[in-house]
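Following up on my earlier thread - several people asked me to post the actual chain instead of describing it. Fair enough. Here it is, all 254 residues.
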Amino acid sequence: MNISIFYRSTAAISLNGSIVALIPAGLIVVGNLLFFGLPDIMLLALPFFVYSFVCFHLYLYRMRQSFSTEKSIIDRPENKGDSLSEARYLLILLQPTQSPELHLFFQNGLFAGKIKRQHKFVLSRFWHGRAYTLFNEQGKEAGYFKVKGKNIAAYDQKNNYLGYFKKEKNKKQLFDKNGRPVCSIEGSNLFMDEKVIAKNRQQAARLRRGWLRVQWLALFPDPNTPVLSFSEPLSEKGRLLTMSLLVQEFFIER
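Reply from S.P.:
Thanks for posting it. Predicted structure:
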């Protein structure tokens, strides 16, 4: 999978929404013509026509993105994928399905992984609630996140507990499995710019929107595409713990 296929799939979602919105609009129009003949009833169909119009134009926009990015990917000679556990940059796109999925891409436009909500989750026992699975670039399970109150617990692919993310008022922190703080998170409530600061006061990672390198725009036309960047080497477990921030930002807060 690559970014072009992602745009095509989101275009299909918009097209389906456009077609579905025409069904109640058509029923209202036909029903009114056959049984009522009242001009005012036609106004009830207007919101459905507007929604269908917007969805169709969004479909066209996404298809244009798909065609343009497909050409850019073909023209690039370095289309060799990184791995989720080693990538320096991850570009983030939310797929607006009934159960939203967070798709991650490498800077070359290839698929890096995704975070998907699971309604049934198994750790040491059966769990009903908000739980999320991280899949890597090969579609294999790479980690899990489980929401416990204000905490987001992180687990590796073998269900080993790694630690948790915690938010208290305006304070955000990452804790290890023993409950010791390992990173603080500094950011803004007005816009997305979250810095993960290690105990040595060095920036370990950063999640921000509105900053995109010029050379990435051919594949990611929206300059507001969120980017998760890693500033210093982190272990795979450290990355998983850091990525609990994505669950907080995209599935809980926004």
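The chain has four helices and twelve strands. That should answer part of your original question.
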